[in-house]
Amino acid sequence: MSGEQRSLIRGLGGYLPERILTNADLAQMVDTTDSWIVERTGIRERHIAADGETTSTLAIRAAERALAAAGMRADEIELIVLATATPDQTFPATAARVQAALGTASGGAAFDVQAVCSGFLFATGVADNFLARGQFRSALVIGAETFSRILDWTDRTTCVLFGDGAGAMVLTAEDPKSAGDRGIMGVELHTDGSKHDLLFVDGGPSSTKTVGHLRMQGNQVFKHAVVNLSNSIESVARRHGVPLSEVDWFIPHQANQRILEAVARRIGIDEKKVISTLAHHANTSAASIPLAFAEAVDDGRIRPGDLALMEAMGGGFSWGAALARV
Ligand code: UT7
Asked: Is 183-325 assigned to CATH 3.40.50.2000?
C-alpha cells in the first residue's frame, strides 16, 4: 500500500446489558427523585452489567454487531483499539481479551486507550492514523465501560448519572480515489491535566492499590464542557473548511441533555441535528458516542453520505471532535 489512505466507516454496533435501573429505582437507594434527574440531566434509565458480565463481554457483543453491519468477518480485522476507563483487569488490555474472543487476524495488534468519556474519539484518532499510514488495513474501534463498578452508590451527585454499555465501529483503509469524499476527515484532540481534581477516580494500582470511586464537581465540569465542546466543534469544522450548517448530524458524548442544548445554542446549530440517546442509557463514558451513532444508523436517521461530527469531553480533562462522511 502506498500513499495516504482514508479510513472508511464500514459499520457500527452497540450493546447494552439487559438489566435496567430506572430513576424510580435510584430514588429507593439515595435521596433523589425521578423529576430531579430528568430535569437536570434528561436521563430516565441506565443499564447495569450483570455479575460476571465485564467490559470485555459488552465490547465483544458490540463488536460482533459492528462486524455484522459491516458485512465483515472478525479474521479480516487487523487492529483493535478499545477505549475504556473500566478495564476487566489492570492488565492485560481489555482489547486483548476481545481479540481472543473474536479471533481477529493473526499478526495484528490490540490495545486499550484511556481518555475516559473522550476515549472513543482518542481511539478513533489512533486507529485513523494507523490506517492512513497503511500500517493496518482494518480496525475495530470500541468504547466499552462498566462504570457501575466504580460508582459510589451512596453519592447521589454521581451515581444517578452513569450506566454500562459498549459501542463499536469498523474502519477500513481505502484509496482516497475510490473513497471519494467519504471517510474520516479529521480528529482533533485536547487534554488539560491541570483540571484533574474536577473529575477523577480516587484509586488506582500505583496510588492506592485499589480500584476507587468516581468523584466529580459536576457543575464545574458542566461549564468547562460547554465551552470546550463548542470550541472543538467550531475548530474541527473550520480546519476542514466545512460550515457548521453543512453538518448533517452532531453525535455528542451523552452526558447531560442540558449540555447538548447549551452547546447547540452557543454555536447556533439546529437541535434536531443533535443525536440524543442518553435518556435510556445515561452516561456510558467512552461507549456513548458509538452507542448513539449505531442507534441513529439503525433507525435510519444517519445515512451513507451524511456528514457527521462527533464530540466529547471528560476526565483529564480530555476533549475533542471528529468529522466524518459516513
Ligand atoms: O462525562 C463526563 C462529563 N461529565 C459531565 O458532563 C457532567 C456535567 N455535570 C452535570 O451534568 C451537572 O452538573 C449535574 C447533573 C451533575 C448536576 O446538575 P447541576 O444543575 O450542576 O446541579 P448542582 O451540582 O449545582 O447541584 C444543585 C443541587 C445541589 O443542592 P443545593 O446545594 O443547591 O442544596 C445538589 O446537592 O442539586 C442537588 N443534587 C441532587 N438533588 C437530587 C445533586 N444531585 C442530586 C440528585 N438528586 N441526584
From this structure: no
Q: Structurally, what CATH architecture does the domain formed by 6-177 represent?
A: 3-Layer(aba) Sandwich (3.40)
Ligand 1 atom closest to the CA of 41, numbered from 1: 15
Domain boundaries, the chain: 6-177, 183-325
Q: With a cut of 90, say whether residue 2 has pLDDT above it.
A: no
Cα 170–Cα 174–Cα 180 angle in degrees, nearest 5 = 110
On whether the CB atoms of residues 317 and 177 are closer than 8 A, the answer is no
Q: What share of the chain is helix, strand, coil (3-state, %, to 5)?
A: 40, 25, 35
Contact predicate 34/131, CB 8 Å: no
253 is catalytic: yes
Pocket of ligand 1 (CB under 6 A): 32, 36-37, 40-41, 117, 156-157, 160-161, 218-219, 221-222, 225, 255-256, 259, 283, 314
* 6-177 and 183-325 agree in CATH topology: yes
Q: How far is the CA of 218 from the centre of ligand 1 (A)?
A: 6
Instruction: Please tell me the predicted confidence (pLDDT) of residue 107.
Output: 86
Q: Which of 47, 253, 256, 281 is catalytic?
A: 253
Q: Model pTM?
A: 0.98
- Burial call 132-154: b when 16+ CB within 10 Å, e when fewer: beeebbbbbbbbbbbbbebbeee
pLDDT digits (tens, 9 = 90+) for 45-103: 999 999 999 999 999 999 999 999 999 999 999 999 999 999 999 999 999 999 999 99
Q: At what angle do helices 55-70 and 94-102 cross, to 10 degrees?
A: 50
Q: DSSP string of 203-218?
A: --TTTTSS---EEE-H
Q: What is the pLDDT of residues 18-34, one digit of tens each?
A: 999 999 999 999 999 99
d(CA 323, CA 326): 10
Residues 6+ apart with CB under 8 A from 178: none
